[in-house]
Every structure is written in C-alpha cells, then in structure tokens.
Design a protein that fits this description.
The complex is a heterotetramer, with two copies of chain A and two copies of chain B. Chain A is α/β, with parallel strands linked by helices. Chain A has three domains: 99 residues, Elongation Factor Tu (Ef-tu), domain 3, CATH 2.40.30; 116 residues, Rossmann fold (3-Layer(aba) Sandwich), CATH 3.40.50; 47 residues, Dihydroorotate dehydrogenase B (pyrk subunit), domain 3. Chain A has six helices and 16 strands. A seven-stranded antiparallel sheet of chain A has the order 4-3-7-1-2-6-5, with no helix packed on it. In chain A, helix 2 links the parallel strand 8 and strand 9. Chain A is globular, with a radius of gyration of 18 Å. By secondary structure, chain B is of the alpha/beta class. In chain B, 30% of the residues lie in helices and 20% in strands. Chain B is built from eight helices and 16 strands. An eight-stranded parallel barrel of chain B has the order 3-4-7-8-9-10-15-16, surrounded by six helices. In chain B, strands 5-6-14-11 form a four-stranded antiparallel sheet, with no helix packed on it. In chain B, a hairpin with a 2-residue loop joins strand 1 and strand 2. In chain B, helix 2 packs parallel to helix 3 and helix 3 runs parallel beside helix 4. The longest helix of chain B has 15 residues. Chain B is globular and about 55 Å long. Chain B starts with 7 loop residues before the first strand and ends in a 17-residue tail after the last helix. Classes of the chains: A alpha/beta, B alpha/beta. At the B-C interface, strand 11, strand 13, strand 14, helix 5 and helix 6 of B face strand 11, strand 13, strand 14, helix 5 and helix 6 of C. Bound molecules: flavin-adenine dinucleotide (2 copies), flavin mononucleotide (2 copies) and FE2/S2 (inorganic) cluster (2 copies). The site of one flavin-adenine dinucleotide has 22 residues of chain A, from strand 4, strand 6 and helix 1. Chains A, D: InterPro entries: Cyt_c3_hydrogenase_gsu, Dihydroorotate_DH_ele_sf, Dihydroorotate_DH_Fe-S-bd, FAD-bd_FR_type, FNR_nucleotide-bd, OxRdtase_FAD/NAD-bd, PyrK_electron_transfer, Riboflavin_synthase-like_b-brl. Chains A, D: This is Dihydroorotate dehydrogenase electron transfer subunit. Chains A, D: Belongs to the PyrK family.
Chain lengths: 275, 307, 307, 275
C-alpha cells in the first residue's frame, strides 16, 4: 500500500543527545500491520520533488493502533535521510509504503523472551503487546549504552507492562554492567522452565543477534531475529537486500530481507556472510 | 477530442502503451502489483538471467549517491532451467508484455539463452544485456567493444525468432559506434542506457561501501547522459530506441521521447515512487492531449526538428 | 597534539594545502575573494585559454539537472595575448598557486600555448585540457583517443619547463588506458575528471535547453563516476592525481583522497556554497586530527589498503 | 557577502492564483544594497544538505531597509526551486549571497520613467523610493495580464507614492488595454518636457525591454534595462550568464549579467543574440 501519512506527532524521544524521534502518522496502514513489519518512508514531504536523498528509508513499526488509524515510528537520527525526516512538521504528509515484510511469529503458549540491543527495542514493543494480549508470559532482555539511553528509548513504557525486565548497560549505570547475553545466560541457568516452552525474538546489532542465536541453539530455544540491510525497492524486486540462509538441504540460499524478512529464524541465518 | 492513442508498435513488438519497466528493478513482475497493476504497463523487462543460477555479489549491494543509486547485485538469478520451469509459466499469464533480459560471460552463454527462448515461450522480446565481462577475452566487456557486441547480437539473432533488443552500456567513448555495431548484428531495437560505472567510499570505514567495490549508477543523476545518448543514436541509427536512465516523472519520460525514444523504461524511479508508471502514463497522455497529438508516437524525436 | 601538516608537494608543485579550485568555475581568481580568501586555498586553476580569443557559445549556457549542472560555455576566453598582457600580471600577485588551463583544437594550438607559458610566468603548472575536438582530425576529441592524448602531452612537455598536468575526459571506455597514454607522453600529474557529456530538453519548447544542444555535466551527480576513475587510475598508474567531480562537502573531499587523489579540486561546489573550500579544508583537518594523522598526505589512497 | 537570512515574513502576495510571494529576510545585506541589485538564494534551509535542486536562485531586491537590517524579495513561484523556496517558514535561515551585480543609476535631476512588464515591477519599487527621496519626478508605466495581477503585484503601494501611473492590461480590465509601449508613446506625444530631461529604467520581458529601448533611442532618452540569464556562480566566475553588447568601437562583446549587470544601457544591448 502506498499512502500519505499525515504527521500527527513528531517529537524528540527522551534526552535530545540520543537523537531519538517519535513520529506518529495517520493513515490506513495500521489496519493490516503486524509487529516486526516495517514501512519505507520518503524523508521529504512528497509535494517537493527533490531527488536527493533519492531512496525511501526503512523504519519498523513501533506502534500500531488500528482503532485510531495511527502508526508510530521510533527512529534515531543517523545520517542525511533521517536528518531531513526529523524536520517534518505536524500536518505535513509523508509518503509511506507498507506494511512491508513478514513480522514475528507468536507461540501458541509458553514464554516469549524478547532480546533487544540499543534501538532494536523499537519493533519489540508491539510484539510484547500482542503476546500479552494473547496471554503469553513475556520477559525482556535489553542492553544499551547507559541509563540515559534506556530511559530515552522508552523504558518507562516497558515498566508499565509489568513484565520482568533484565537490563544491561555498558557502563553499569542501570541494570547489570555488560552485555545482554550475560543476562540471558544467567536466567537460563536459574530457570526452572523447560527450554521447550520458550520462544525468543531478537532485534539489535548483528553481533548481538548472532550471540543470542548461539545461546538459543545450545538450549534448543527457537529464536527469530530481525535483520537489516540497505534497501532499494523494499518489495523484493531489486535483490539489493539479500541475506544468506541455510535451507533444509544445508545449501546456502539468498533471501530478501525486505520481502522474506526482515524476521528470520536465527538458526538459519549465515552470520559470517556480509549480511 | 479523440482520446490519445497510446499504443505503440516497433520491431515486431506491440505494446498497449510505451511504458516499460527496467530489467533488475521489477523482479519477475509480481513484486509491485499491489502498487501498480501490470495491466497499466506497456510491458515489463524481467530480471537478467544467465545459463546457470548465480548467487550474485555479497552485500552491501546498494549505495545511495546524490540523486543516484549504485548497485552491485551481480546478476543474481535462478538460471535458465529454473527460469523456464518455475518462472515462465507464471510470466506467460501476466497481463502485460514480458521482455526477457539475457546476460552472459561468453558468446556461448548468449547462444544458449537465445536458443531456449523463442516466440512460443510467450515472451514479447529478448533484451540482450551486453554490459558483462567476456571471461574468454580477458574480461573485456562485450558492451564496450563494437565487434564483440555485433557478434553477440548476430549470434542471438540467429538462434531466436523473438525480436532482439540490444541493451547498450553508456561506459563507452562512442555510443553511436556501438549502436551501429548492434544494428549490423541485426538488432531490432536498442535499449539505452544501462548503468554508469561508479563507486562510493565509506570515509569512516575507509573502504568502498559496496562489497564489489564498483557498482552501476542509475537514477535521476544519470538522466542527462542518457538523454544525450538517445539523442545521438536517434540521429545516427535507424532503429527504434527504448529510452531509460533516471526516468522518475512524466516530464522525464516526455524528454526521452522528444529525444528519440519510441518507448521508455522506468527503473530506479519505481523505488522512489512505486506508482511512478501510473503517474507518468497519465502525464504523457495529458501532454499529448494539450498539444492535440493523436498518438504518443507523434512525440518521438520531436525535439530534433528545427523550429 | 601536533597540528596536521596540510601542505602537499607533487610533480614539482608545492601547495600550502591540497585544495584547488576547478578551471572554468573560478574565473581568473578575483571573483570569489569576498567569499573565500585566496590565502586559504592551495591553488586555483584558471579558466581555460586558447591561442585566439573566443566568444564561446550563445546562451543558454547552463541547465540544472538532478544534483548536477550542464554547461556549454564553449571556452569563452580572452586568448593568449590578452591573457599574458592583462591577466598574468594580476595573477602573479595572487596569494596562492595559479595553474593555467590550456585548450586547443590542434596540436599546434597546444604547442603555442605551452611555449608562451614557462616557469618565469609565475604560474605553478599547466593543466592541459584535452577534452576538445581536434579539428584537423574530423573532430575526434584529443581526450578520447590515447594516441592523440599522448602526442598532445608530449608536445606540451617539450615546450614548457612548467609541470604538466593532463586533465582527462571521463567520456571514454577505458580511463586507465588514457592515463597510461598521458603518462607515456610525460605528464607529471593527472586531473580527473572533466565533465560528462549530457543534455537536457525543454519539454514545453520541445528543443534542447542549451543553445549548444550538448553540455558538460558536473556537480554531485557525477561524483560516483569520478571517484571510480580516481580509484582505477590510482591502482594502475604511478602519477599524482588531482581529484575533482562533484566535491561539495569535506566528506566528498576525503572520499577522493582515500580513493587516491593527492590534491582535490572544487568546481560546481563553489556555486552551491562559495565558502565550500573553507569548510572543506576545516573538515579535512579535523578528520586527520581525529585519526591522529600527521599529514593530509597520509590519506592518499588509504581505502585501497586491505583491512 | 554570504549570510544566513532569517525569515521574518513569508506570505502570499495578493491573490494566490498569481503565485506571488513576499519574503522578508533579516540580515546585514540591506546595509550596502542598491535598487537593481539581486541576491542568490538557496531554496532550502541550509541545514539540509540536499543537492537537488543544486543551484541558488537569483532574485532581485524588492525592498531594502537598512534601518531594520531587512530585505524584501518578491517572487513568482515558477518551477521546482521557487516551489521549494515557497515552503520556507518563519524563523528558518536561508543562505543568501549578495548584494550582487550593479543596480540602476539615478539621474541628478529631471524625470525618471519607470517601465515594468509583469513581475518586472519588483526591483523598480526601491528605485522609485530612491529617486523620490532625491527629489526626482517619477512616472510609472506598467503592463500586466489583468487588474487582479496588478493589484496582487503591489499596485496599492505604488498608488501611495502619489506618482503618475500609466497602467496597461492585456484584457483591459484596468488601465489601457494593450501594451505598455503604447502608453509610453502616448505620453511622449503629449509631453511638453524635452526628452533630454528624461531617464528611463525598464524591467520585464525581453521583448518589452527591446521595444521600449527602441522608443527611447528614437527620442534620445537614455534607458537602463535589467536583463535575466540563467546563473551558475552569480559572481562572474563561470561565464554562464553572458549577454552581448556593442562596445564603443561597435564590436560585439560579452558581458556577465551577474557581475557587469543585471542593469545595462539599453542602447548597448544586442537583443537578437539569444541573450
Ligand atoms: C527493516 C528495517 C527496519 C528498520 N527500523 C528502524 C527503526 O525502527 N528505527 C531506526 O532508527 N532505524 C531503523 N532502521 C535503520 C534505518 O533504516 C537507517 O538508520 C536509515 O535508513 C539511515 O538513513 P540515513 O539517511 O539517516 O543515514 P545514511 O547513512 O545517510 O543513509 C545512507 C544510505 O544507507 C542506508 N542505510 C544506512 N544505515 C542503514 C541501516 N542500518 N539499515 C538499512 N539501510 C541503512 C540508507 O537507507 C541510505 O540508503 C531499519 C532498517 C531496516 C532495514
Ligand atoms: C538578476 C535576476 C533577478 C531576478 N529577480 C527576480 C525577482 O525579483 N522575482 C522573481 O520572481 N524572479 C526573479 N528572477 C527570475 C528567477 O530567478 C527565476 O524565476 C527562478 O530562478 C526560477 O527558478 P525555479 O527553480 O522556480 O524554476 P525552474 O524552471 O525549475 O528553474 C530551473 C533552472 O532555470 C533557471 N531559471 C529559470 N527561469 C529563470 C529566469 N527567468 N532567469 C534566470 N534563471 C532562470 C533557474 O535558476 C534554474 O537554474 C530573476 C532572475 C535574474 C537573473
Ligand atoms: C538494482 C538494479 C539491478 C539491475 N539489474 C539489471 C539486469 O539484470 N540487467 C540489465 O540489463 N540491467 C539491469 N539494471 C539496469 C537497469 O535496467 C537500467 O538500465 C538502469 O538502472 C538505468 O535506468 P534507471 O535510472 O531508470 O534505473 C539494473 C539496475 C538496478 C538499479
Ligand atoms: C561552468 C564550467 C566551466 C568549465 N570550464 C572548464 C575549462 O575551461 N577547462 C577545463 O579543463 N574544465 C572546465 N570545466 C570542468 C571543471 O573544471 C571540472 O573538471 C568539472 O566541472 C568537474 O568538477 P565539479 O563537479 O566539481 O564541477 C568547467 C566546468 C564548469 C561547470
Ligand atoms: S530492497 Fe529490493 S529486494 Fe529487498
Ligand atoms: S553566473 Fe557565473 S558568470 Fe554570471
């Protein structure tokens, strides 16, 4: 679907130093969207025909409100494109393609372990909401730079969910000092639950997702990870965004992050290909 | 006022309108259907295929540049057999003309592909992508040497009963010489242009952004070069031209037709605006209406006339 | 921290920093002084001169394209005599290195220009623009034929004691071949790149925008092509390179140096931001500082190293 | 001078259908500016580094207030560049080069006849103010499409000056029906004044300026005209904007509209060169 999303809210998210933004857009996309899917957004009001920057930017759905016909995008100002996007004012209309790709699956029962690194937290929130509304137990493992980052990136909304949160920061300013993987290992060790009742979903830096996948493999926890790749078309037509997976026969195959993903089964991902 | 006649016919190809999509940017036709119904298009050009399946280059395969896009997909494709078995049956059913795009790394590759794709395949034409290195001749590109280009086209022409479109590379000193060569080879039409060779360096990582180092530059940035080549070839060679390179708005499309393109093809523009083909078609129609032109074909080469 | 050493020396040319401005975009040095003091620049390249005065092409001479600019000035210039009499005395006093840019339509033109411009002129070097048609050889451009290019450079080299920089045209199949040719001709350095040949059509007037039909494409749009050519020539030919083509920000400048440019030159970027050279210099300095590099020369070709 | 002009006022000028805009910018340019000079303005807020559109746009100074450090630009939304410019909001900073070029000269005494076609009126207003403050007599000949256009393009400010206005419209909806040249001829015929006391200054479509120059030549009235050409550098460095003049020796020479103009003596202009 190609729609014009009207900017309803566009504000800084938390402390400005983290350059995080919250963008709420009005439009019909919410009706069919799923946690883990994304949109491809044009960073300039489409009434301007400027071709620099040229491409749309992929941003995950961080909030899906079909009652209000609203989607929320949370993003970090990164380079030129997101800088220009950050200037969009309330009332402007931004061209969005979406919802795109395949989102996370939800287990029928048991526990859902969410694992986030940095701004990888954003697409996990709607997933948590879906899981909770389905009656699943949810835990969040989340690692970030420091307390200020975690608070800026939405910690309080997570606290309101009343689920167990395992936080890590690089500097120890909040939660455990270190990496999110250590927290997961700790929990696995302490846990009474059989790992067969656990599903995991991870989003964050590739290295983190790879490490978490490794852990999950060892304890036979199925895990889904959300990959990122530079995109051209965002619909599977240009083969710009491929990643390498191992198929059932053990052969390396290419999948398109935009169309076949961005969510894939962690065990299938070939991490060491530059993907 | 009579409606503008949008249909166009050239080189034995009949299209309901002059709007095509570019090879490599429109998959095998099914990816964009929820944005742009195929019924609206004159035709689509399929992703380039080779005799054997190819995994293509590692990622990153894309880099954005000012008003442009670098790609180094590396001809990832399922290969000829899989194309015929799994893709062709679906392609035959598409509600628009489908042009296959064939690539090779030796003359034999092209011959093999051409032999397998005949009129009974349901395809409308073969577009021959000659912007590939000839591995048997030290990697010299077919598309930069007039003689190799002529040979490839002649070989393809001898093998297939489909109309043959030669797709030229812009990375040459003399595009007219290349066009003449493929005309001698028997090409029925010419596609202009493929991508310009470029690269982009990540200054923080201090290495090329693309895993392949080099990539092909497409998008609005290259439009002035593409229009120039269409203009030059139109003046020198009597073959229909499919114009492409940066077409994103209807004004761009009209510019290519005025320069001499009989049909026009949209590539990177689809990424920017997946409804670009619809808007372009509408724009061309209105442009003709406002000028009282009975047919889109009346636009072709109009800017060459002295006034 | 020691300050970064910005000065650079190559091909017998010494510059206080690697920042030059491009021929044809910076007049004869006096036009931009209220925006960018010449003291800040490593050097300037003067508008191209020919033996006889030229009025150039009619207007329109400029057309804007996506992230690019087409120009067809047609080498308007006062001619050699007037250059020497009226311009050179002022140029000698400029507080920066001045590189003359010479153009010709025959070998004799280049010879005449080279003979008149020696070290005692106060110029720092001669840049030889070979992107001109050779009227004696059916209009074939010097810059697209390796042999003519070699001859021109050799002839110039034989006539002047100034360092000779060969400025290459990007409108060729094989830029490395051209670079090798001018190296054989004795060039001391290579400027890469001149403009890409392009055109733009006014769809309302249904004719080319430029009075000259074709023009040279410059600006950010061509940067990926320019960086690619600098990269290729750096790998193949052992001559210092002055990189240019779309440099507008300091990031662009660093990209060219990492690709292999010893110095970089700013053309169209001045039009966009007349203080671009100052901002670029500052950016390069900080980039080096942050990485603990003692000299800008440490950047040259860095992206070629495997890591 | 390169400065950031802060947008103080940006509004439609008159009826929106004429796509005229009034842009007031705060900055030091006013201090040294003269009627007939222009600025080269970047159409996008310079905090965005977009290179499409690439070039600055030349716009004449339509108001120069050195007391307030303000300049006024009046422009018509024409193509892509001015469309984007039209979106600049109050408080934004636009990069401007200027003042550029050479403006109109003022006679020491006598009458100044201003001749404007369409939006060519804009640079003439500050000229009228200067002339009046110098004690000169000023008349305005102004031709436009119709009444609505003239009113939108600032007729009432001109009426406030209390000078004689000779208006023409193509449809006769205001003033005389027809071209501005007819009005000038009428006045010349009726006039008691010796033409040696008259100076003329014209701005508008080339055809109009050429015709007015012809009239002035015949009656030996010196005339200055303001030319337009596509610009690259706007400072005389690129030779993109040349026009052809006849010099003292009768030879054709090129002058740069940006640096030597935009104002030239009408008699010197070679109108039939594509300039
Ligand atoms: C499926 C998916 C979902 C995403 N969801 C979010 C999100 O919810 N919040 C968020 O802040 N970011 C998200 N990203 C990353 C986001 O797309 C990039 O940060 C953004 O494209 C950077 O653009 P830029 O112009 O600011 O940066 P630049 O560096 O100027 O971009 C230059 C080019 O690189 C591409 N690019 C740069 N970084 C990335 C990246 N990490 N992934 C893909 N392309 C990149 C851009 O699209 C552009 O083509 C997501 C990426 C993908 C693929
Ligand atoms: C000295 C001078 C003073 C001017 N003063 C005014 C003024 O006060 N008010 C006003 O409304 N307009 C004025 N103009 C015209 C104004 O510059 C153009 O209307 C504007 O550049 C059009 O830009 P665009 O992007 O909207 O149009 P586009 O058609 O999209 O522009 C494309 C390109 O053509 C150039 N271009 C288009 N039309 C003109 C033109 N008439 N003159 C020069 N370049 C052009 C643009 O600069 C750009 O490079 C002046 C022009 C000059 C040379
Ligand atoms: C991602 C991508 C993949 C491409 N793949 C092919 C291909 O397989 N065969 C081919 O002949 N051209 C290929 N091209 C070139 C396009 O078909 C087209 O010639 C070029 O992109 C210029 O048009 P544009 O600027 O409208 O994109 C590809 C272009 C892009 C951007
Ligand atoms: C208006 C204009 C005039 C130019 N004139 C010359 C010239 O006289 N001689 C020359 O060698 N190159 C000339 N060039 C080419 C530039 O020097 C430079 O090689 C090219 O523009 C690429 O750099 P850029 O993208 O930074 O402008 C000219 C370019 C422009 C835009
Ligand atoms: S972005 Fe085009 S295939 Fe994924
Ligand atoms: S615009 Fe460059 S010389 Fe006038």
């Amino acid at each position: 679907m190609l729609t014009k999303g009207q900017v309803v809210v566009h504000e800084s998210l938390g402390d400005e130093k983290h350059k995080l933004k919250r963008l709420v857009l009005k439009g019909p996309i919410a009706r069919t969207a799923q946690a883990g899917q994304f949109v491809a957004i044009q960073v300039q009001d489409s009434s301007i025909s400027s071709f620099d920057p040229l491409l749309r930017r992929p941003i995950s759905l961080a909030g899906i409100s079909s009652e209000n016909d609203e989607i929320t995008l949370l993003y970090r100002v990164q380079g030129r494109g997101t800088e220009i996007l950050a200037r969009a004012k309330e009332g402007e209309a931004l061209s969005i393609m979406g919802p795109l790709g395949h989102g996370f699956s939800l287990p029928e029962a048991g526990e859902l372990w969410l694992v986030a690194g940095g701004i990888g937290i954003f697409p996990l929130y709607p997933l948590a909401l879906s899981a909770l509304s389905k009656g699943l137990t949810v835990r969040l493992f989340w690692g970030g730079e420091n307390q200020s980052f975690l608070e800026s990136a939405g910690l309080s909304s997570w606290e309101k969910l009343g689920i167990p949160l395992y936080l890590s920061t690089l500097d120890g300013s909040l939660g455990q000092k270190g990496l999110v993987t250590e927290q997961i290992n700790d929990q696995l060790r302490q846990m009474s639950l059989s790992s067969s009742q656990i599903w995991a979903a991870a989003c964050g830096p590739k290295k983190m997702m790879q490490a978490v996948t490794e852990i999950c493999k060892n304890v036979k926890v199925p895990i889904e990870v959300s990959l990122e790749e530079r995109m051209g078309c965002a619909v599977g037509a240009c083969l710009g965004c491929v990643c390498t997976l191992i198929d059932e026969t053990g052969a390396k195959v290419h999948k398109k992050v935009c169309q076949d993903g961005p969510v894939f089964r962690g065990e299938e991902v070939v991490w060491d290909e530059s993907c | 006022m009579n409606p503008v006649n949008l249909s166009t016919q050239f080189a034995g190809i009949t299209l309901r309108n002059p709007l095509i999509t570019c090879s490599g940017t429109y998959g095998f036709g099914e990816e964009y259907t929820s944005y742009c119904p195929l019924e609206a298009l004159g035709g689509i050009t399929l992703k380039g295929i080779t005799p054997l399946p190819r995994l293509g280059n590692p990622v990153p395969r894309l880099a954005e540049t000012p008003a442009g896009l670098l790609n180094a997909v590396g001809l990832e494709n399922p290969g000829l057999d899989e194309f015929i078995q799994s893709y062709l049956p679906k392609i035959r059913k598409l509600p628009t003309a489908a042009i296959a795009n064939i690539s090779g790394f030796s003359l034999e590759d092209y011959v093999q592909l051409a032999r397998a794709l005949q009129k009974d395949s349901g395809l409308a034409a073969l577009e021959v992508n000659i912007s590939c290195p000839n591995v048997k001749h030290g990697g010299m590109h077919f598309g930069t040497d007039p003689q190799s280009a002529q040979e490839v086209i002649a070989a393809v022409k001898a093998e297939t009963d489909l109309p043959v479109i030669a797709k030229l590379s812009p990375n040459v000193t003399d595009i007219v010489g290349m066009a003449r060569a493929v005309q001698l080879g028997g090409a029925d039409a010419i596609s202009l242009i493929n991508t310009l060779l470029g690269m982009h360096i990540d200054i923080y990582q201090q290495r090329p952004v693309l895993a392949n180092t080099f990539g092909g530059l497409s998008g609005p940035a290259i439009r002035p070069v593409a229009v120039r080549m269409v203009w030059q070839v139109f003046q020198a060679v009597d073959l229909p031209i499919i114009g492409m390179g940066g077409i994103t708005t209807w004004q761009d499309a009209v510019e290519f037709m005025l320069a001499g393109a009989t049909a026009i093809s949209i590539g990177t523009g689809n990424f920017v605006n997946p409804q670009a083909p619809l808007e372009i078609l509408q724009g061309i129609k209105e442009y003709c209406e406002e000028r009282g032109l009975a047919s889109v074909r009346d636009l072709v080469g109009l800017a060459h006339h002295d006034r």
